[in-house]
C-alpha cells in the first residue's frame, strides 16, 4: 500500500498522544526489525487525499482496536517533528471514546506513562523531543 503514494512530500506520519487519567499511552513496535523494541505514539502514514486527523482515527482503530477523538495538536516550533528527509511526524492529543486499547500486529506492548516519566522510555529517535515536550508540560502549574 504505502509504496504507491501520491500525497504530501515528505510523507506525513501521524501519531496519537492518548491520555487517560493523566497518563499517556506509549506503544512498543514489533516491526520492522530495525524499529522493533522502540516506543512510539501509535499511528501511521497518511494516505493520499486523506485528512491527517482521519488517518489518525483509522490507524488507531487498525492498530489498537479502539475509537479515539482527536483534540489539540502538539506542535513543534517548525510545525512538525522531523523523522528524516523522507518523513515528518505530527502528533495530536487524543481521548479514548470506545474500547480498551490492546496491541495488535504492529506492537508487542503498550504502557501508560506519567508525563514526567515519558522521556525515560526507549523511543524512536524522532519521538524523543515529543516526549521531552510532554514532560515539560508536567512542570507547568
Ligand atoms: N506510527 C508512528 N511512526 C513513527 C513514529 N515516530 C517515527 O519515527 N515513526 C516512523 C516509523 C516508520 O518509519 C514510520 C511510520 O510507519 P508505520 O509503519 O507506523 O506506518 P503505517 O502503519 O502506515 O504502515 P505501512 O502502511 O507503511 O506498513 O514513521 C511515531 O511516533 N508513530
TrEMBL record:
<feature type="domain" description="Nudix hydrolase">
    <location>
        <begin position="9"/>
        <end position="138"/>
    </location>
</feature>
<keyword id="KW-0515">Mutator protein</keyword>
<protein>
    <recommendedName>
        <fullName>8-oxo-dGTP diphosphatase</fullName>
        <ecNumber>3.6.1.55</ecNumber>
    </recommendedName>
</protein>
<dbReference type="InterPro" id="IPR000086">
    <property type="entry name" value="NUDIX_hydrolase_dom"/>
</dbReference>
<dbReference type="InterPro" id="IPR020476">
    <property type="entry name" value="Nudix_hydrolase"/>
</dbReference>
<keyword id="KW-0378">Hydrolase</keyword>
<keyword id="KW-0234">DNA repair</keyword>
<comment type="similarity">
    <text>Belongs to the Nudix hydrolase family.</text>
</comment>
<keyword id="KW-0479">Metal-binding</keyword>
<dbReference type="InterPro" id="IPR015797">
    <property type="entry name" value="NUDIX_hydrolase-like_dom_sf"/>
</dbReference>
<dbReference type="Pfam" id="PF00293">
    <property type="entry name" value="NUDIX"/>
</dbReference>
<dbReference type="InterPro" id="IPR047127">
    <property type="entry name" value="MutT-like"/>
</dbReference>
<keyword id="KW-0460">Magnesium</keyword>
<dbReference type="GO" id="GO:0016787">
    <property type="term" value="F:hydrolase activity"/>
</dbReference>
<keyword id="KW-0235">DNA replication</keyword>
<dbReference type="InterPro" id="IPR020084">
    <property type="entry name" value="NUDIX_hydrolase_CS"/>
</dbReference>
<keyword id="KW-0227">DNA damage</keyword>
